[in-house]
Design a protein that fits this description.
Layout (H helix, E strand, L loop, with lengths): L18 H18 L3 H9 L4 H24 L17 H8 L3 E4 L4 E4 L13 H17 L1
Antiparallel strand pairs: 1-2
Length: about 150
Amino acid sequence: MNSCNCPNTCTCNSKDGNYMFFGNLKIIKKHVDAMLQMAPEAVQQILSNGHDWAADHIATSKDDVEEVAGFLMNEVAEDNDYNNQQPQFIPADFKNHLKKLMPERIEKTKAGYFATTKTGRRLSQQAKTKRAALSQLAAVEIAKHKK
């Protein structure tokens, strides 16, 4: 590691290539770490008070970062263990907190994806694609709010 924490050769201050890539990653990590230190209840209250746009931005950002990370991990090494690693910045109780926020969710199995209820009961007997399971959850949410 260098003084700027770049592995191997530092590219942070270089004007060659994609030097902004690593700088932007560091800024993203800094802000994510700061948000994860906030009290979840306080953040939930803020989001519930008309600021649901913030959750949308996080969701789209997660998708973008996940796509780039997956691409780079596949390009760098095919035999990496990236997809099986638990990210280091997620608090230990985050899974339980997420279950409280999202009682219905998607369960990934070897056969495919299943939409599940808050009790863990599968909403279908056959495995689906991830997109189909998300569509099923969306239909459940729409039905819940039509009442």
